[in-house]
């Protein structure tokens, strides 16, 4: 399987298509969509004559239960990139299955927003619920990706409009390599709008609007409860019953 040189021109054509389809697999929630993406990946692996990827995909038929679409897509993409960089096929090493058991203690949260005021308001909203603890903050998308890799948060509260890399760019990378769940908190992601729809397609668990005016101090009163409800749903926690 390893050692045989692959056509460099074919690899250059193959990798962007593989990356795009792996992204669709990572974002797919329905089994039918997952199967379509896997079929497309099988065709790409066969066309590029990459035996290790073909074998890895054969092992997914029948589809395992439960199926970790995001983790599988990330592993397949990482291997494809390694093979493309090497110029020849390599053995595929499947990652160990990810534990789905809930972590003990509060959910670790990363808050991402280019506004320091908004980061504070989101942090204070979550501080009202002992189920959460904010462990890191980021002011732009690149910093967010670094914090995700370093801190492995269980929940990411993500703005969309940011410098360097926007929230949708963060979601595309997170869908392949990130951990935890994402709640979008943004005035740009109007529920039902194009940005919100794309965020949900990429795997965001919920979209919550900011109050009018990025620095409005009423977030804690008007939006804090909505943020906490969305955060609990995304983290797999039961809703808090009203007293």
UniProtKB/TrEMBL annotation:
Q: Which residues are the signal sequence here?
A: none
Gene3D superfamilies given in the database record? 3.40.50.2300
Top-rank lineage group of the source organism: Bacteria
Output the SUPFAM superfamilies linked to this UniProt entry: CheY-like
What are the GO BP annotations of this UniProt entry?
Answer: phosphorelay signal transduction system
Keywords carried by this UniProt record: Phosphoprotein
Domain named Response regulatory is located at 108-225
List residues, modification 4-aspartylphosphate.
159
Protein name (Swiss-Prot/TrEMBL)? Response regulator receiver domain-containing protein
- UniProt organism field: Muricoccus roseus
């Amino acid at each position: 399987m390893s050692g045989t040189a692959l056509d460099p021109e074919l690899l250059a054509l193959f990798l962007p298509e593989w990356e795009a389809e792996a992204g669709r697999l990572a974002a797919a929630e329905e089994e039918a969509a997952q199967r379509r993406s896997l079929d497309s990946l099988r065709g790409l692996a066969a066309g590029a004559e990459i035996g290790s990827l073909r074998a890895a995909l054969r092992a997914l038929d029948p589809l395992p239960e439960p199926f970790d679409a995001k983790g599988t897509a990330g592993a397949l993409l990482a291997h494809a990139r390694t093979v493309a960089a090497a110029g020849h096929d390599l053995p595929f090493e499947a990652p160990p299955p990810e534990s789905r058991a809930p972590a003990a203690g509060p959910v670790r949260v990363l808050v991402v927003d280019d506004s320091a005021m908004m980061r504070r308001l989101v942090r204070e909203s979550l501080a009202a619920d002992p189920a959460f603890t904010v462990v890191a903050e980021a002011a732009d998308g690149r910093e967010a990706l670094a914090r995700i890799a370093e801190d492995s948060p269980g929940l990411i509260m993500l703005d969309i409009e940011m410098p360097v890399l926007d929230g949708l760019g963060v979601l595309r990378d997170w869908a392949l390599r990130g951990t935890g769940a994402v709640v979008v908190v943004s005035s740009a992601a109007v529920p039902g709008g194009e940005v919100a729809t794309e965020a949900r397609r990429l795997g965001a668990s919920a979209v919550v609007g900011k109050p009018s005016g990025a620095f409005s101090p009423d977030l804690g009163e008007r939006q804090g409860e909505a943020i906490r409800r969305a955060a609990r749903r995304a983290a797999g926690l039961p809703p808090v019953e009203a007293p």
